[in-house]
Design the sequence.
């Protein structure tokens, strides 16, 4: 496979720019924080997380898929499915795994302390989709590697899924307005910005709902779906009751949030 890192980076930048333009042209909510401060620190966190992965993870998901394929390890390597069917099944199963991981990170207290940094953003826009603590990023990569190796997912399918996952995260975190009828049709299959905004509400029942990243079917299937925020999208407050100070949006404070109660 020719340079998967460059392929992923190209898609990341393209979707980031497109979503940024979309939410600038048709914003869904009025922002409450400095966009410049949030963007500098959220995107700075993306760079820091990439550095941590490069430094601490000699093998990522695609390299693990190549290794499993070369050693004929994992379910798909034993079944010899057509390539298109394998990619489709792999995307479905990986998306289910991400849904389950997301739910667990909300349910287990010490994992929630890591994940809540993502929810501490007091506005939600395209950069929130990449705002995760580096320890959570590392744990997520190990989980993804375990799923990839055990299922024997091909390197191509891993690349396709990672592109879809990153694009979906930026799409459904965008502070952009979709026509209500289009949103209603799309959310039957994929997670839309309005659907995911519920997940970033300060109201706990809403925070702990709508865990899907790409497909919306898992929330409906496992009864974690909530259609709309209680106060409506114009009035819903984004973030957590904890970490409300403006200074908490800076990179150094974000990194220390899992280790602080106040």
Sequence:
């Amino acid at each position: 496979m020719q340079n998967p890192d460059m392929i992923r980076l190209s898609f990341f930048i393209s979707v980031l720019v497109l979503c940024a333009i979309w939410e600038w042209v048709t914003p869904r909510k009025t922002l409450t924080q400095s966009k410049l401060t949030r963007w500098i620190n959220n995107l700075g966190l993306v760079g820091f997380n990439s550095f941590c992965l490069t430094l601490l993870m000699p093998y990522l998901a695609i390299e693990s898929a190549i290794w499993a394929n070369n050693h004929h390890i994992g379910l798909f390597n034993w079944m010899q499915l057509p390539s298109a069917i394998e990619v489709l099944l792999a995307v479905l199963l990986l998306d289910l795994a991400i849904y389950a991981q997301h739910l667990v990170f909300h349910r287990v207290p010490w994992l929630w302390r890591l994940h809540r940094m993502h929810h501490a953003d007091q506005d939600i826009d395209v950069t929130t989709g990449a705002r995760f603590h580096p320890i959570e990023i590392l744990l997520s990569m190990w989980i993804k590697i375990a799923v990839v190796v055990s299922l024997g997912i091909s390197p191509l399918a891993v690349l396709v899924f990672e592109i879809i996952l990153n694009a979906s995260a930026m799409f459904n975190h965008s502070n952009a307005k979709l026509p209500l009828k289009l949103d209603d049709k799309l959310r039957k299959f994929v997670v839309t910005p309005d659907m995911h905004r519920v997940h970033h509400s300060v109201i706990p029942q809403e925070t702990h709902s709508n865990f899907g990243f790409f497909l919306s079917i898992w929330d409906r299937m496992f009864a974690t779906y909530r259609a709309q925020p209680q106060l409506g999208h114009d009035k819903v407050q984004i973030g957590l009751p904890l970490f409300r100070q403006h200074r908490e949006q800076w990179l150094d404070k974000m990194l220390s949030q899992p280790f602080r109660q106040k």
